[in-house]
Design brief:
homodimer; alpha/beta; Molybdenum Cofactor Biosythetic Enzyme, Chain A; Molybdopterin biosynthesis moea protein, domain 2; Molybdopterin biosynthesis moeA protein, domain 3; 4 domains; 6-stranded mixed sheet; 28 strands; 19% helix
Chain lengths: 415, 415
């Protein structure tokens, strides 16, 4: 049962185990949809914009009427009237005619372009146009944003501010999204007490419960923190069994000793329809991850060491939360800050090393492409959460690399 | 009044105008503090951890007793007992003694290190130790996370998951933070109707109201969208006047025509204690930004063009929201994805160009440091929000650059 997998292989097995395990689809108001995962393609119900608009203050014209116009020989057009914002133009534009139009105004039928105010002059009931217009100049045409039937927002994308704007512009007020997965969180450990209690010698306050709840929230889940469970097989079994009624995902953190880890493994293995998929990942921190399911509900056994638990969340729980909402396990493009390592760093190889760093502005090395940003590793074991609190992010030393020299470029993921 | 500023200068003037304009300080529960801006340094109230702990299952020893131990000549120590999780050790460790200890167990007085279980053997009432320990081996010492009085979280930082964890571990349950700024949002324009209405010819549904509300929320503010106001000086004046009673920031979007822009400028200038600081920024999109204050409450006049309004928000409103919560105007390190431009691109120079792009995986160019990611510009004016909906992010062509060749590396900020 104790197979130590690579990070990639562990992620693959988790994702495979969740095939088809989507949360329920619910309908929510577009206004409240920021960050939510779209469950059904949104198709443009009509052309957007539905009418051609001017992007300038000026005169709506038929471009052909202005060909060859210049300062010395302006095109003289009949001023047919004034287009008002939010209103239909006063009739259509016949050859030889122009209408005054504000930015955002509706282009009249027959008109195809707008000449800027600065290049026109009203002379009596005529307009002198001093510049030629090409068709569509200074206009937004019907369907320039989206054509009727075009895919506007595909399912499997999470909603951004601009998406909310475009949905509003189409009159879409409600949206089908995947429910936020409910994540039941347990802390285990006989030494762990709630944050509001005063520790006696040998006791420490729970760190992981609140931090994992915050990560869950940040990752689109609904945290359901159920407190501290004794390191005891029967108690944990009972608590997890109850959780499974409501949970989409169960997180059990704690149990860093071999004995307590074994308890978590046995509990997961003995749940109804339960089984441990793997135990151990070749990474540091985060090696003692346990993953299993019970009736296809995923259960993660995270280390009691907070740094380890938090990295396991980022690398394994977050992708699971995404997949259950119909998203790709990883965002297609994850942003980073490139920095130069400010010291030599060794790594034993054979595992991925997640190095926590502080970033700072250094002096320019003179190397090509240098942005002056330096990364200073923060050393300390998986039990020291200060290594994450004091730092700005992390970079990865791959499995096949035994160390990096000072000055090496690394991609730092901000947390 | 119409001074077109550089982006940097416009940001500087906005930030300067907000000196000392912090929102109220409120006390909130640490559990609910994710993303909130800390208003008061958090100092470690005692050593963290408050006692030395083991990071391994093994035996607590005095390192000096194990010097020279080897497989052939183990150190033989008296087994004094068993340390239980969450409990005080059964007495102190005298020279020549060892105690069994689980991971996370409390190191007994007199002990300074732990030898792993694998390197020890219990023989009757003795422990044979086959490896020497150095002082502090396999332990976390008192104060290794934070020393008493050490700065844990400085004011001016926003709270992350790991910060919530460390606060919990210190028994800190409440936190002083700056209130979320209330952002009153108006859309103006005689052609604008609410998203739930059916547009008549010449009318369009409000895009900016909902998108700006979402950006506000994402940036830590509380959106207070007050709907659509007629493009009329008296109506707008009255609406803004009422808003100022409750607003920390006022956003007026709309008015892309010269006439309506003038209305916004006049309204801001004629408010009590009011004044327009500048009007126009040398960037595209986003040029027609108006900035002013009334009795030192910042008021932004954003373009009616949605792309323009959204970029103005990102570049100017978001820094203002940060500053009012005691944060630096910009995060110290903003992550990005480096990509190679997949086409030649010209830019007129003299302004910053914000180019919306789609990212995709290309084939490797063979160039050093190439990550295969390509950026394809999405062309279209500031009136076409589809340029942001279809894209992944943007990069900036600086003012002094007149274009970029295909293959050039650009930093894409994901949105």
């Amino acid at each position: 049962m104790l197979t130590v997998l690579t990070v990639r292989e562990a992620q693959r097995r988790i994702i495979n185990s969740l095939k088809g395990k989507l949360t329920e689809i619910e309908t929510i108001s577009v206004e409240k949809s920021l960050g939510r995962a779209v469950a059904k393609d949104v198709i443009a119900p009509y052309m957007l914009p539905p009418f051609a608009r001017s992007t300038m203050d000026g005169f709506a014209v038929r471009a052909a009427d202005t060909f060859g116009a210049s300062d010395s020989i302006p095109a003289l057009l009949k001023l047919k009237g004034n287009i008002l914002m939010g209103q239909e133009p006063p009739g259509s534009l016949e050859p030889g005619e122009a209408m005054e139009i504000p930015t955002g105004g509706m282009i009249p039928a027959g008109g195809d372009s707008v000449v800027m105010l600065e290049h026109c002059e009203i002379i009596g009931d005529q307009v002198a146009v001093y510049r030629p217009a090409a068709p569509f100049d200074n206009t937004i045409q019907v369907g320039d944003d989206f054509k009727k039937g075009e895919l506007v927002i595909p399912s499997g994308r999470s909603i951004r501010s601009q998406d909310i704007g475009i949905l509003s512009s189409m009159g879409v007020l409600q949206l089908k999204v995947y429910s936020r997965p409910r994540v039941v969180i347990f802390s285990t450990g006989d030494e762990i007490i709630p944050p509001w209690m005063e520790p006696k010698p040998g006791q420490i306050r729970d760190i992981n419960g609140s931090a994992l709840a915050a990560l869950t929230e940040e990752s689109g889940g609904i945290p359901d923190y159920r407190g501290i469970i004794k390191d005891d097989k029967i108690t944990l079994h009972q608590a997890v069994l109850e959780a499974l009624d409501e949970a989409d995902i169960v997180l059990i953190s704690g149990g860093s000793s071999v004995g307590t880890r074994d308890v978590a493994v046995k509990v997961i293995d003995e749940l109804p329809g339960g089984g441990v998929f793997f135990h151990g990942v070749s990474m540091k921190p985060g090696k003692p991850l346990i993953y299993g399911t019970s009736d296809s509900i995923p259960i993660f056994g995270l280390s009691g060491n907070p740094v380890s638990a938090l990295f396991s969340f980022l690398l394994f729980v977050r992708p699971a939360l995404r997949v259950m909402q119909g998203l790709s396990p990883f965002p297609p493009f994850v942003p980073y800050v490139e920095a130069r390592l400010d010291t030599n760093l060794s790594s034993p190889g054979g595992r991925e090393d997640y190095i926590r760093v502080s970033l700072y502005e250094g002096s320019n090395s003179g190397k090509e492409g240098d942005n002056n940003i330096r990364a200073r590793p923060i050393f300390g074991g998986a039990g020291l959460l200060s290594t994450m609190v004091k730092g700005d992010g992390y970079f990865i030393i791959p499995r096949d690399t035994e160390g990096l020299p000072e000055g090496e470029k690394v991609k730092v993921y901000i947390y």
